[in-house]
Amino acid sequence: MCLRLLGRALTDLDGGVIRIAWIRETFDQLLLSASPETTEQFARAYALSLIGGVLFPDRSGGSVHLQYLFLVDDWRKAGRFAWGAVVLSYLYREMGRSALQMTMSSSLGGDLGGWFALLMPWA
Length: 123
Hints:
mainly alpha; 50% helix; Aminotransferase-like plant mobile domain-containing protein; AminoTfrase-like_pln_mobile; MAIN-like
């Protein structure tokens, strides 16, 4: 799937995740003479880095799970997804998970994933 959608075969998949740094290094510059297929691959890589780094960040903040790759397979379908609702749901789940960890441990600094910019207007 990576080869078909990104044009690159991944050999080092640690736990089914792609490092966002690898995406940024690999898809650094798109040539003006690039084919439409290559342009789509770069667009998918950029969207994948946004999904993993902004919309659904994990606690490490440096990787994106391969499960999100199917979201950028077909742009027409991706445009019909309820992205806002899913991002908000993900943030709520992460907040609940973090709160549960904090009640089970004595530390106050639980790991929290999610897009914190959504919390700013509410706060």
